[in-house]
Design brief:
It contains 13 helices and 18 strands. Strand 14, helix 12 and strand 15 form a beta-alpha-beta unit. The two termini are 37 Å apart. Among the domains are: 114 residues, Methylthiotransferase, N-terminal domain (Rossmann fold), CATH 3.40.50.12160; 30 residues, no CATH class. About 4% of the residues have low confidence. A five-stranded parallel β-sheet has the order 2-1-3-4-5, with helices on both faces. By secondary structure, it is α/β, with parallel strands linked by helices. The structure holds S-adenosyl-L-homocysteine, iron/sulfur cluster (SF4) and FE3-S4 cluster. The site of FE3-S4 cluster has 13 residues, from helix 1 and helix 6.
């Protein structure tokens, strides 16, 4: 049987896309392989969001490409967002790459795979059933890491064009997955034993399929029997409405967690970023969420060093962080991405200054996170246990109803 090794960079959407490719390859008889050296096919799923993400992917691809020469017949595929940005130039840059499939082709990935591994010809038995376009299927158990949680993409692409962001260029315009496909994917997964589903989209709140918007999709899916918990990510603050929060508050099926990327605390910077909200509007949104969902974890993405950000404006971000008290946050230094609106702005901040701001931001958030976690000492949490710790095999891992990861030693 042929085997495949996956290396996935980037966000949860990329993880879901890798799962989709795994499922298509499994239908063609491929088995998972834990070692790149021993696999017949290596798939590298790439991210373009920051320069460092591309650097990491490039060096891994180069590593695979040079090791590949020692192994006759091995194939190396590069897929995802960097594959979209660079296209076949990647093949020239790194000899040894056999195929490049960009992120915009993910909905038609079944056709690409069929072109290279026609069912029933190259490998394995034909399991029947043509790949459904644009929706993730349940993975054969041999491929899945955990049998209780899974992703379902509900929309792809982004129309927001935040000034710093490459995603709209590499993922394309917003497209919503038909409601019927979302519903059947959820049912199929729940029947296979999945307890928790995370709906994915660059901005899930933009979901709209034949008049069904995101709050309606959530209330319909919440009726699914056997489904214990629903999560979703990411919500753009400009589109996070009271109605959405009402839907979440009205059913016990939703995780008590909202990821709401704020990016910055200065109105001038938010406007330059094209985020379409102010810091005070964002704080009102937090107040509304905390009134309806007092125990909810709120998490965020924050960026420092956007072009022209002054020290005083950076301090406004720190101020917002102190007020918001996010449970955790992903924090980044601005990275220039060619082709975006911000790429043509004069930065006016040294790399050293950006790094100093990032360190200060992380120090503050770490302190807030520690205080929030300390407050939870002695509390009883409902935890969905997902997997056994792999390296030390000491504990079970899981997640509470919010965003907190939990280790249970036993
Ligand atoms: N769709 C999501 C975010 C996708 S990218 C949203 O709108 O919230 C994830 C995070 O990466 C962003 O929230 C942002 O904080 C960060 N990011 C995006 N582009 C970046 C860049 N050029 N430099 C640094 N961080 C960036
Ligand atoms: Fe990027 Fe903004 Fe779209 Fe998020 S909403 S993916 S940050 S352009
Ligand atoms: Fe990266 Fe593409 Fe996700 S750029 S963050 S993998 S949408």
């Amino acid at each position: 049987m042929p085997s495949v090794y996956f290396q996935t960079f980037g966000c949860q959407m990329n993880s879901a896309d890798s799962d989709e490719i795994r499922a298509l390859l499994a239908e063609r008889g491929f088995l998972p392989c834990g070692s790149p050296a021993e696999s017949d096919l290596i798939v590298v799923n790439t991210c373009s969001v920051r320069e460092a993400a591309e650097r990491r992917a490039r060096s891994r691809i180069a590593e695979f490409a040079s090791a590949k020469r020692a192994r006759a017949g091995q194939r190396l595929w590069v897929v995802g967002c960097m594959a979209e940005r660079l296209g076949d130039k990647l093949k020239e840059e790194i000899p040894g790459v056999d195929l490049v499939i960009g992120a915009k082709r993910m909905e038609r990935i079944g056709e690409a795979i069929e072109a290279h591994f026609p069912k029933g010809i190259d490998v394995g038995a034909d399991t029947g059933g043509v790949a459904k376009i644009g929706i993730s299927r349940h993975l054969p158990p041999i491929f899945s890491k955990t049998a209780v949680t899974d992703f379902v993409p509900v929309m792809r692409g982004c129309d927001n064009y935040c000034a710093y962001c490459i995603v709209p260029y590499v993922r394309g315009n917003e497209r919503s997955v038909p409601y019927e496909s979302v519903e059947s994917a959820v049912k199929e997964k729940v029947d296979a034993g999945i307890k928790e589903i995370t709906f994915l989209g660059q901005n899930v709140n933009s979901y709209n399929y034949n008049g069904i918007d995101f709050p309606e999709l959530l209330s319909k899916i919440a009726e699914t029997s056997g489904l214990a918990r629903i999560r979703f990510t990411t919500s753009h603050p400009k589109d996070c409405t009271e109605r959405l929060i009402e839907v979440i508050a009205s059913s016990g099926k939703f995780a008590s967690h909202t990821h709401l990327p704020v990016q910055a605390g200065s109105d001038r910077i938010l406007s330059l970023m094209n985020r379409k909200y102010t810091a005070s509007r964002y704080r009102c949104l937090l107040d509304m969420i905390r009134t309806r969902l007092p125990r909810a974890d709120i998490t965020s993405d924050i960026m420092v060093g956007f072009p022209t950000e002054s020290d005083a404006e950076f301090r406004e971000t720190l101020e917002l962080l102190r007020a918001a008290r996010f449970t955790t946050a992903f924090m980044f230094a601005y990275s220039k991405r060619a082709g975006t609106a911000a790429a043509s702005m004069e930065e006016g901040i040294s790399q050293a200054e950006k790094m100093a701001r990032l360190t200060e931001l992380i120090t503050l958030q770490t302190e807030i996170t520690r205080e929030i976690y300390e407050k939870a000492v002695g509390e009883e949490l409902e935890v969905l246990v997902t997997e056994r710790q792999q390296k030390r095999d000491l504990a079970w891992m899981g997640q509470d109803a919010g965003c907190k990861r939990v280790l249970i030693s036993c």
